[in-house]
Amino acid sequence: MPDHLLVVRGGLFSTLQDFGRFGYQRYGISASGAMDTVAMRIANALVGNAPETAVVEMTMLGLGVAVEAAGARIAIAGADFPVTLNGRPAEAWRAYDVARGDLLEVGSARAGMRAYLAVAGGFAVPPTLGSLSTHSRSNIGGFDGRALRQGDRLPLGTAPAAGPPLGLDAAGQPATDGPIRVVLGPQDDAFTAAGIATFLTSAYRVTQKTDRMGCQLDGPAIEHADGFNIVSDGIMNGSIQVPGQGRPIILLADRQTTGGYPKIATVIGPDLHRLAQRRPGEEIRFERVTVEEAEAIAARHRALLDAIPGRLRPAAGIMGDLTPERLLAANLVSGVVSA
User: Same domain for 274 and 231?
Assistant: First the structure.
């Protein structure tokens, strides 16, 4: 049997995701893809994968997997989930080498919303329209087009891990706090000046009606200028619609391809990963930036992403990683013999 990860606990909503499938929205096919692509990139870098390699995205409640392989290298990055390996505490933001029979358990998120499990070599799952991303509403992609569940066996790729397991120290881990920056439009003229001021100065709260398709917010109503219907047009990741009741909805990875509510603004790309980690009950504030400012932010963000591999260090050398148990288990005096 090929090497696998056996799912022993599927979690709340764990799916295979990569950067998404593009070029098909004109046919009504959503792009999907990882909600927090920064955490996904880091998880992949920790195990030596290319940034776009598919990972398992976990939502609020992690999963449990048993290793059915001679060996594999795994890593988790993203929200603050408790992790154990064979019943012993383990850590996110670092890689581990595992062997057949090892059990990785990821619990409920203590902070944040989503985390990502990467395996060196990725998953040997056939792509759908060029992507492994799961769109569960249409049963496209991923593992049979659905969330993972107990008994699923995820086949592993064959690329071996090279070098020692790597880690990323706390200083290099991405922040998720602060306002969400937006560019106004494309239908900001559908709102009064007072409505736009309300949007930019008010605190909104993430509701329970939040998933991979969109983030519905509660807070002060935003005033439309003259009705709330438009001729349906394209929706992108981060589009902020305002329907008739005046509360904004941020469309996300599994969004529909078109929509008929006016869009007051669009979240800039570099802030989508922070938005992906906001959980129900948490507050969101918006900050307006110009197109030129957004482009400059995106350039700096790209430079930070490109620098991720260079910030990784051997995991055993990262401060805080050396517990007494690991020190005792390590062969720290190799080569020393009695006289």
Answer: yes
Distance, in Å, from the CA atom of 17 to the CA atom of 27, rounded to the nearest integer, reads 21
Q: What share of the chain is helix, strand, coil (3-state, %, to 5)?
A: 20, 30, 50
CA neighbor of 200 nearest in space, from 288, 137, 266: 288
Domain that holds residue 211: 180-299
Whose tokens are 């920064």? That residue is 38
DSSP states of 131-180: B---BTTTTBSTBTTB---TT-EEEB--PPP-SS-EE--GGGSPP--SPE
Identity of the amino acid at 70:
A
Average pLDDT of span 132-137 = 95
Q: Cα separation of 79 and 50, whole Å? A: 21
* Each residue's pLDDT tens digit, 63-105: 999 999 999 999 999 999 999 999 999 999 999 999 999 999 9
Tell me the per-residue pLDDT of 229-253, one tens digit each, with 9 for 90 and over: 899 999 999 999 999 999 999 999 9
Distances in Å between the Cα of 214 and the Cα atoms of 27, 32, 333 are 20, 12, 54
Name the domain count of the chain: 2
Q: Is residue 337 part of a domain?
A: no
CA distance 153 to 98: 17
Whether residue 98 is found in the same domain as residue 139: yes
- Looking at the fold, whether 167 and 185 belong to one and the same domain comes out as no
Alpha-carbon gap, residue 135 to 30, rounded angstroms: 7
Distance CA 31, CA 272 (A): 15
More confident of the two residues 171 and 186: 186
Burial 308-329 (b: 16+ CB within 10 A, else e): beeebbebeebeebeeeeeeee
Cα angle value 175/131/32 (rounded, 5°): 50
Same domain for 189 and 166 = no
Instruction: Over range 58-67, report the average pLDDT.
Output: 97
Answer yes or no: do 76 and 53 share one domain: yes
Provide the 10 A C-beta neighbour count for residue 115: 28
Residue 258 tokens read as 């078109």
Give the CATH number, domain containing residue 294: 2.40.100.10
The CA-atom distances, in angstroms, between 167 and each of 63, 120, 171, 236 are: 21, 14, 12, 33
